[in-house]
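Tutorial, part two.
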Amino acid sequence: MNLPFQLAACAEMIWRDRPIEWRASRLKEMGFGVGLWNWPEHDLAKLEATGATFTIMNGYLTGRLTDDEGAAELLKTARETAKVGKRLGVQRLNLHGTGLGEGGLPVQPIEVVTGEMWLKARDTLARIVDMAEEENVVFTLENLNLDVDHPGVPFGRAEDTLALVSSIDHPRLRLNLDLYHAQIGEGNLIELCRKSLPWIGEIQVADVPGRMEPGTGEVNWKGIARALKAMGYQGPVGMEAFASGNPETALAAFREAFTV
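Running the prediction step on this input gives:
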């Protein structure tokens, strides 16, 4: 038995009564990479001083893929975030179809995605890639579930994010394949991973229902880990989940699930 993946955890979701730099330091001590959300909420110097490996962070502050005004805002804040990401050594900068506000709800909900919006989204992502080349960074596009957490987000389903990223087909734009969201909205996780494999930049996990650590819900994470190893995936797996109890116990369960 070994650990074929780089494991990380979202520092925003565990030890929530502790300062974020303490969480990053503790994750580093435990051998995990660190995921972050929005950088303006944190003291960058303190995070930098931890020496943690930051695997992923939100790659923009505002904006959206679907229209000229939103795309301009997305490009502007993504470039600003890219510079912060380089300072912290963040490996991937994450995007969504539109900006998310309070409770993860879209700032501007979109119930119907038109063909024109698809073309605009692809154009916006192509411009993101050009900027990523200039800044020497990598962006990811994350799938989100529409039924429970993020109703009204355009391009939320994994089949949508895969269609967009594969159409660009550039190493500066990868998938952040979130299996928690995919299980709620689509299921068939192993086949989804196999189909998405050439474009995956990171896989994120949380159990369903409840969005807590592996072993608290219905997903066979050990089976998924074995399948990922068999198909040759060697990239990062990040736990973007709340702890059902003690955070260190939750992280141990996550590590055990992905030790194959």
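The chain has one domain: 6-257. In part three we will examine how such features are distributed along the chain.
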